[in-house]
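tokens incoming
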């Protein structure tokens, strides 16, 4: 698949994922997590493996938290 087509598809996927929670928000999150809650995560890797999707995740967070 053409690299430009893949980039466009990834951008569209990111747009759709944000659009899903626009409006009255994500109902599961709103019902379980206080609005002022902050968190962080840690990835623990116990075995060798392949971590896929990092480039997409970087783009997602760049849109979520622009500089």
């Amino acid at each position: 698949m053409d690299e430009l087509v893949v980039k466009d598809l990834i951008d569209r996927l990111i747009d759709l994922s944000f659009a899903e929670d626009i409006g009255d928000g994500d109902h599961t999150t709103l019902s379980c997590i206080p609005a002022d809650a902050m968190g962080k995560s840690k990835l623990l890797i116990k075995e060798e493996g392949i971590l896929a999707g990092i480039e997409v995740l970087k783009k997602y967070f760049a849109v979520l938290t622009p500089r």
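note: The chain has one domain: 3-36+45-64.
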